[in-house]
Amino acid sequence: MKALVLIDIQKGFEDIEYWGGNRNNPEAEQRAQELLEYFRAKSWPVYHVQHCSTNPKSPLRPEAAGNALNELVKPLETEPVYTKTVNSAFIGTPLEEVLKSTQQQDLVMAGLTTDHCVSTSVRMAANLGFEVTLIEDATATFDKVDRNGKRYDAQLIHETAIASLDGEFALIQTLEEFLDSIDN
Questions:
Q1: CATH topology for the 3-183 domain
Q2: Residue 167: helix, strand or coil by DSSP?
Q3: In this structure, is the dihedral angle defined by the CA atoms of residues 20, 25, 30 and 33, taken in order, positive or negative?
Q4: How far apart are CA 176 and CA 31, in angstroms?
């Protein structure tokens, strides 16, 4: 049995200007919803992770409306939500302990943003001994500007983050590939 970990799919990421002015994969939340519905239909475990930023300007700070989880992936009462203040879903949360105590070694992960909290959580999960599948089209990120003012396109940031995880930290699949691999 696989366990789904949805990372930081929050309303605050709808503020595209705050995050860099351009975003790739506008369908990421929809793909995450389809993935969530699949796990629910199988009665497989689902875990939600919610970022509670300590930055007073962030749309993800606890008192901001943007802190709320996106309605497309709204948790059921039976689905735990773990809050964090850092990039990793495993630091400051009981996620690792819960997964290990229930012998869930096979994780499927998706969320926002590809190069920050998703990448950090995937890397840490692999380092903790979990088998990870990352659903690449259920993740997204934003443009980045380096310290010299050079802008990097969101799609390039997404692709390089995925490439860095592929093989060493996770099996990378699209939602369609994942569903085909499970159902066949």
A1: Rossmann fold (3.40.50)
A2: coil
A3: negative
A4: 10
Q: Which amino acid is at 127?
A: N
Domain residue extents for the chain: 3-183
Task: Provide the residue count of the chain.
Answer: 184
- Confidence class of residue 183 from pLDDT cuts 50, 70 and 90? confident
pTM summary value: 0.96
Structure tokens at 144: 């980045």
Beta strands in 15-149 (DSSP E): 46-51, 81-84, 106-112, 131-140, 144-145
The alpha carbon of 102 is separated from its chain's Cα centroid by a whole number of angstroms, namely 21
Write the pLDDT tens digit of every residue in 91-139.
Answer: 999 999 999 999 999 999 999 999 999 999 999 999 999 999 999 999 9
> What's the token pair of residue 86?
């850092």
Please give the Cα distance from 170 to 8 (Å, whole number): 19
- SS3 assignment, position 48: strand
- Listed in sequence order, the DSSP H helices in 22-166 are 28-42, 95-101, 119-127, 154-165
